[in-house]
Structure formats: C-alpha cells, structure tokens
Amino acid sequence: MPLEIVRNDITKMKVDAIVNAANRSLLGGGGVDGAIHRAAGAGLLAECRTLGGCKTGEAKITGGYNLPAKHVIHTVGPIYEDGKHGEKALLESCYRKSLTLAKEQGCETVAFPLISSGVYGYPKDQALKVAIDVISGFLLEHEMTVYIVIFDKAAYRISEKLFTDIAEYIDDNYVNEHTDYRRESIRMRAPRQASIGSFEADFCECKEMSVEDDLDIRIKQIDESFSQMLLRKIDEKGITDAQCYKKANIDRKLFSKIRSDIHYKPSKPTAIAFAISLELSLEETEDMLRKAGFALSRSNKFDIIIEYFISRGNYNIFEINEALFAFDQSLLGA
Ligand code: AR6
User: Fold this and answer.
1) Which of 8, 18, 32, 95 gets mutated to test ligand 1 (max ligand atoms within 8 A of its CB)?
2) What pLDDT is recorded for position 178?
C-alpha cells in the first residue's frame, strides 16, 4: 500500500528514511527529535553539527547511524500560533521537501511522524490532514511507500464530529447476522440512492438498446470475474489503470497481477479499495465484492464504516482509512 498509517515508534521503523520533526538548530531536542537522537547515537549529532541548521519548511538529510533506517531527513515544522501565520503552507512544505529529498536519494520507503503536532502545537487532526493531502498528491506522481507513524493513539483522533457520527451509524446499523432483514428492507426501499449518477449513465447508455441486447449484456456480466469487472469499470469510467490503482492506494505490482490473472481473488480490503477508487455505488460495490467471494455485512464494524462513507458519496480513501484506524479496523489497500 503506497500510503499507510501505522501506530509505532518511528525509531523502530526499518525503512530507507525516517523523518525527524526537528528545530532550526538541528542539534536535537525533545519529542520525536530526542527519541531519534537517542536511538541513533552520537554519530547523528556530530553529522548534524556540520549542516548549519535548517529553515522552517525546509529539509536536510543525514545517515541513520544506529537506527534501523538508513537515513534521517530532518525537517523543521512551523510553530502553530492561530493558523493565520502561514502555518499550513510551511507544514506542507516540510512534507514536500522531505519527499523530494527522499526521492533524490533513491529512497523507496519513508516514514513520517506527525510534524509540528507535539511541542509545536499544530492541531493533530489538521496536521494529519496536511500530511495525507501532500503525501497522497506526491504519490500520484511517484512510486514510493510512505508511512505516517502515529505514536500515541490517545492523542490522535479524527474530528470529534466525524467520530461521533460514525459511532452512531455503527450503533444504528450493527445487527446480528441472523436479523439482517433490515438491510434488505433498506436496500429495497432506496436501492439507487447512492448511485443516481451511475443509474443515469446506465439509463442513457441503454436507451438505444433492445431488451434482448440489454439482457444479453447483463447475463454476460453475471459470469464476469472480479478482474474482468474491474477492467470494465475502469473503461466505463474513462480513467487510466494508473489513476485507478493510485486512487485505490494499491501498488502497481499488485494491480498488474490482478490485470493479468482473470481469476485473481483479492483480499476484501483490496476489493473495497478498488470499489472506492471507482466511486461505485453501494449496490455496485456489493456486486464487485461478490465476484471476489465477499459481502458487506451489518455484523462487522469495518463493513459498516465502509457503507457509511459510500452512502454519503465520500470516496476519499485516505479519510476512510483515517476513520478505520480510529475504530481499530484494518485499512484499505493491499
Ligand atoms: N515515534 C513517532 N512519533 C513520535 C515519537 C516517536 N518515537 N515521539 C513523539 N512522537 P514533537 P513538533 C510524535 O513534539 O511538534 C522537539 O523538541 C508526537 O506524539 O516531537 O514538530 C524539536 O527539537 C507528535 O504527534 O515535534 C523541536 O524543538 C509528533 O511526534 C520541537 O520538538 C511531533 O511531536 C518540534 O515540535
């Protein structure tokens, strides 16, 4: 998965580069900076002394010394005042400059802490949003695996409102497998609500078709495999393969495997990630999942959260992953 949110101590990450939330002196400090210097040993400080500091929003690279990571990229985040002093642009710059530096040094795997979100006071939810936006934008253009490392889960939450909203949705919809009748009745009442766009598209496409042709197409689609449906939907949406797998947060190798094997059975999170990237309706998502041997269930928190987002037409995979993370569920992607 090109972008992953993980809970860990960044000093334990075995990646090409970890990013340090440093200060302008680059001579160490508290928080993640202190932890990185302690784990790397004195060699890191000695190299940092040669760098002449670093401006806010910029980044510099050193070796990793005793760390499992090969390099440390030191970046200096903004001190948050009130959000009106250019903090966001500076924080974006930290991520962008660090990623560019990592790319120039040939790094394939990079781990970031949530820069500025500790001592420097940047609100954690906004800091995470900036991280996700810049990193996912970068990954549309470059092949790399990037981790956002969340150290302290208690200190990290999606917005209170979204969290409460999803929690209520889970409470309202969580049902025992055997009393799943509600789901059916809801679907019967509003089967197309979340897919007006695609319904109209289907309707427009089919209006010149005879009933026989239409039936013929539908029968062929019953036998379609997951991989065939995926490729058909990519064509129908008029997007490229790369646009699809990048938006799904799936790496190119896995996509090639699926493309070349019509009987490929993806994992459930992978299948859902494609449904999200193709912006399928709930009904189409279920259809795609069935082809991979899965279903969305109302007795599963993960599934209800997915349903929450699809039924609201929110197909931002990173936001969905943030919410899944907050509810301790596995994330979408490979
Ligand atoms: N692994 C991953 N994340 C961590 C770790 C860890 N081991 N330790 C803390 N965090 P902060 P800033 C998280 O304060 O806000 C230093 O003194 C932490 O929970 O380290 O950019 C520097 O020298 C928080 O979410 O960095 C500067 O003076 C995030 O890392 C100043 O602090 C960043 O918190 C920089 O402040």
Assistant:
1) 32
2) 41
Q: Which fold has domain 3-155?
A: Leucine Aminopeptidase, subunit E; domain 1 (3.40.220)
pLDDT at 107 over 90: yes
Q: Which residues pair with 221 in a beta bridge?
A: none
Q: Predicted confidence band at 103 (pLDDT cuts at 50, 70, 90)?
A: very high
> Regarding beta strands 71-76 and 59-63, do their DSSP bridges make them parallel or antiparallel, or are they unpaired?
antiparallel
Tell me which residue has tokens 């253009």.
141
Catalytic residues: 33
Ranges of each domain in the chain: 3-155, 160-180+224-326
- Which of 74, 77, 72 has its CA nearest to residue 87? 77
Q: Closest Cα partner for 87 from 95, 96, 78?
A: 78
- CA dist 300 to 39, 191, 306, Å? 40, 21, 10
Q: What is the pLDDT at residue 239?
A: 94
Average pLDDT over residues 244-272: 92
Report the pLDDT value the prediction gives residue 16, as an integer from 0 to 100. Answer: 98
